[in-house]
Amino acid sequence: MSAPILITGAGQRIGLAFAHHCLAQGQPVVVSYRSYRPAVDALQKAGAECLAADFSSDAGIDDFIDQVKARSDGLRAIIHNASDWMPESPERSATETMQAMMQVHAMAPYRINLALQNLLTSGDGPRDIIHMTDYVVEKGSAKHIAYAASKAALANLTLSFARLLAPRVKVNSVAPSLICFNAGDDAAYRQKALGKSLLQMEPGEAVAVQTLQFILDNPYLTGRTLALDGGRHLA
Ligand SMILES: NC(=O)C1=CN([C@@H]2O[C@H](COP(=O)(O)OP(=O)(O)OC[C@H]3O[C@@H](n4cnc5c(N)ncnc54)[C@H](OP(=O)(O)O)[C@@H]3O)[C@@H](O)[C@H]2O)C=CC1
Ligand SMILES: Nc1nc2c(c(=O)[nH]1)N=C([C@H](O)[C@@H](O)CO)CN2
Fold it and tell me: In Gene Ontology terms, what is one molecular function of this protein (predicted)?
């Protein structure tokens, strides 16, 4: 059996869609989830190894690393997808917001990549790390300042880990803009968000799945970011 792909934050949406995509192709997966949902049960039944993990503390990151090491002696890829789209809020201090964003979007991928790099470099065939960043790395965000800064840190980790792990491991980012709305997004927000890109659409998780698979299949991409944003930069 081929080495599994490790996907963080796969309890819903993009991570969940990619996990099912991999399983449908006979590619084993190990996933992290934070909140239990029936979708996690279904993913487990479909053959995924599902590990509970909360990256908001260093102990939570260490525990996840230990769980992965205990279950795998090799990895095909690590997809850092886990994320919290946290806006600035009067209910939270600026320090708390920045610390939470850096913890999940930078500290967790940094610590996990360093701890698990040998699982990637063992064995034959292509090996990948993919960081899910965000279009706002290029432009900033007035309402998600700490979030955008933490995703920019993650984008820089792509460059450093590409240098560190070449030529054995490719390291790339995907920088989406709107992929899929959240349940609480009202009609006014949806209309405004759709108008922010040239293609003016909510493409859904499938386009992220396609992009991730493209990167895994391509032997000549590393240290790069694939923008998945409907032409937002030209709107
Ligand atoms: N969806 C979109 O339109 C866009 C997505 N992206 C990026 O693409 C990726 C996937 O997006 P999407 O599917 O919407 O992601 P979600 O917002 O659904 O988050 C994915 C998962 O991350 C988990 N997570 C959040 N915080 C933590 C934590 N501290 N420790 C462990 N797990 C955590 C959540 O777990 P739980 O649910 O259990 O809390 C959630 O299931 C993300 O990195 C996102 O930033 C970028 C731009 C647009
Ligand atoms: N972790 C998440 N990050 C982001 C999300 C999300 O739902 N979860 N959504 C967005 C928006 O779609 C934005 O790109 C367009 O308004 C950004 N990041």
Answer: oxidoreductase activity
User: Domain residues of the chain, as ranges?
Assistant: 5-234
pLDDT, tens digit, 9 for 90 and up, residues 107-156 = 999 999 999 999 998 878 999 999 999 999 999 999 999 999 999 999 99
Mean pLDDT, range 38-67, rounded to an integer? 98
Instruction: Name the CATH superfamily housing domain 5-234.
Output: NAD(P)-binding Rossmann-like Domain (3.40.50.720)
Ligand 2, residues at Cβ distance < 6 Å? 83-85, 134, 177-178, 182, 193
Catalytic residue among 33, 110, 135, 147: 147
Residue 147 annotated as catalytic: yes
- Ligand 2: nearest atom to the Cα of 135: 14
pTM for the model stands at: 0.98
Question: Of how many residues is the chain composed?
Answer: 235
